[in-house]
Amino acid sequence: MIDPLHPRTRLVGLGRPHRPGDPLNHPVTPASNFLPGGEHWYSRLDGTNTIDALEEVIGALEGGTALVFGSGMAAVAAVLSLVPAGGKIAAPTDCYHGVAGLLTEGAAAGRWDLHRIEPTDTAGWAAACDGADLVWLESPSNPLLEISDLPAICRSGGRTAIVGVDSTFATPLGQRPLELGADLAMHSVTKFMGGHSDLLAGAVVTRREDLATRLQGHRQLAGAVPGALEAFLALRGLRTLSVRLDRQQSNAGELARRLEAHPAVRRVRYPGLVTDPGHTLAASFMDGYGAVISFEVADDDTAAAVVEGMQIVTHATSLGGVESTAERRSGYPGSTHLPPGLIRMSVGIEHVDDLWDDLARALAVASA
Ligand SMILES: *Cc1c(COP(=O)(O)O)cnc(C)c1O
C-alpha cells in the first residue's frame, strides 16, 4: 500500500502508542526478558517497545523493513554476514574508514575478495553488479563527498550482487536507495537521524524478505541490538530531523559558497555547489545535499590550526549533530587517498554568520 503522507509527516506521527490512556511516546523499557504471552520475550531476539517503534519509523521513511543495530558498524557487520565464504565484495575507494577497516580486515583473513572502485566509475560498478556477491556503495561519501550514480548502478542489468548503499550522509529525507533499486539502505543513526551526538545506533532497511530474515537472524545470534534508551533517544531525535536538516543544509550551502571564495581555501567539496563535480548527478536523484562539507587548506598543520582555532565550531570527530564540528581528515590510518590539509566539517543549526565569522577568523590566523 502506498502511504499518501509525506515522509516529513510520517516521521512525526509513526511509532507511537495507540491505546486509550497510553502516553504519546513509548516509555523506555529497560528489560532483557518479559512474561510470556505478549509481544516480546527476550529483547536480544525480539526487541523492546522503543526498538519496534524506531524500526517502524525508519522502515516507513525508506520504504522497507527496518532492522536497527547497536551502531552503524554493527549494521555493516550484519550486512557482511550475507557474503558467503570466499565471496567477492566491491566497495568504494572513498568510504567511512571503519567500513574500509572491516572490509580490509576480512579480506586479509581470507574471508572474501575485496575490489575497490572509484565512486564515480559507473561502468566499473555496473560490471561489479554482475559477478560480485555484495556491491557496497556510499553516497555522498565520507569524507570526500563523492556522488555515485545510484540510479544507474542499482538498475544495471544482469545483476547477481546484493546492492547496498550507506546513505548516512543523505538521510532518508535526502535520498531513498530502495526506491532507486538498491536491495539495502544502511544508516549510521548515530549521525543526522539521532542528531544530538548522544547515542550510537545503526539501521539496515530492505524490501527483500529473504534478506530481512537473514539479517534479523544474524542480529539475534550476534547480539547487535541497540539498548532501549538509545532506541528511545534515536526516535526522539528523528522527530525533528526535517527541521534540523533544513537549517543544517542551508547553512552548509552558504558556508561552502563562502569557503569557495576564500583565498586560504584550495578546494571545497559539497554536492550542493554548482561547481562541484557531483552536483548535476546529485541534483538528479537527491532531495537536498546534506550538511557535511570538506575543504582543503595549505597543509596538514594549517588544517590542524584551523580546527583547533575555532571557538563555536567544536573540534571533534563524528558528524550530524545540531552543533557544528570539524576535524582534520588526512594523516589518519586508512586515509592515504585523501589530499593534505583536508578538513571535514559537519554543519549544525547555529546562525550561519556566527559560523562563518568563526571559520574566517581561524582561517586567517592559521594561514598568516
Ligand atoms: C559514522 C559512520 C558509520 C559508522 O557508524 P557508527 O554509528 O559510528 O558505528 C558508517 N558510515 C558512515 C558514512 C558514517 O559516517
Keywords:
368 residues, alpha/beta, seven-stranded mixed sheet, globular, binds pyridoxal-5'-phosphate
List the helices and strands and how they pair.
Layout lengths: L6 H7 L29 H4 L2 H14 L2 E5 L2 H9 L6 E6 L4 H12 L3 E6 L4 H8 L4 E5 L11 H5 L7 E5 L4 H4 L2 H4 L3 E5 L13 E5 L2 H14 L5 H11 L2 H20 L6 E3 L9 H7 L6 E5 L3 H10 L4 E2 L9 E4 L13 E5 L5 H16 L1
Parallel strand pairs: 2-3, 2-4, 4-5, 5-6, 10-11
Antiparallel strand pairs: 1-7, 6-7, 8-9, 9-12, 11-12
Bound molecules: pyridoxal-5'-phosphate (PLP).
The termini sit apart by 60 Å
- Strand content bin: 15-25%
Radius of gyration computed on alpha carbons: 20 Å
* Uncertain runs: none
**What integer is the average pLDDT?**
96
Number of helices: 15
Tell the overall outline: globular
Helix percentage: 25-40%
Give the structural class.
alpha/beta
Largest sheet: 7 strands, mixed
Output the helix-strand order: HHHEHEHEHEHEHHEEHHHEHEHEEEH
Small molecules bound in the structure, each named once: pyridoxal-5'-phosphate
Assembly category: single chain
- Strand arrangement within the widest β-sheet reads 1-7-6-5-4-2-3
Number of E-state strands:
12
